[in-house]
Amino acid sequence: MKTILTIAAAVLVAGTVNAQKLNDKDVPKTVSDAFTKKYPGTKAGKWVKEGADFEVEFELNKIESSAIFDATGTFKEVEQEIQKNELPKGIAEYCTKTFTGYKFDEAAKITDNKGKVTYEAEMAKGKEHFDALFDDKGNFIKKSDIEKGEEKKD
Description:
Blueprint: H1 2-17, E1 19-22, H2 29-38, E2 47-50, E3 53-60, E4 63-69, E5 75-82, H3 91-98, E6 103-112, E7 117-125, E8 128-135, E9 140-143, E10 147-148
Antiparallel strand pairs: 1-2, 2-3, 3-4, 4-5, 5-6, 6-7, 7-8, 8-9, 8-10
């Protein structure tokens, strides 16, 4: 029994260590330069290291956004907050029916470096939340693992 609890605790800690907040000085110059080149005149917000990649939050045309770059500065994707009614038809209904007990919290449009668009619906219940991913036509792709964090305030 102790072994199972130890393994469970290790998995929990490993999941929370995945994303690491960074000071600006800890972001490689190639990465910060790539951000500046891709989004000229845009002020970088909080940087986070996720695995081998770097994610930066920023505001683009008054829209809450984040972009991911690899360690060489190669742009991977941008995620932009959107209104729920901007999602392709059927996503909101799918989430409500499929993820009972969870509230549809936020929506985002994700565009990768090849221009492929996917949509994200963040679902929340108390301190639990997860993301449901959909293609550009509104077809369900996958659900992320449930994470626990601060309770969302509306």
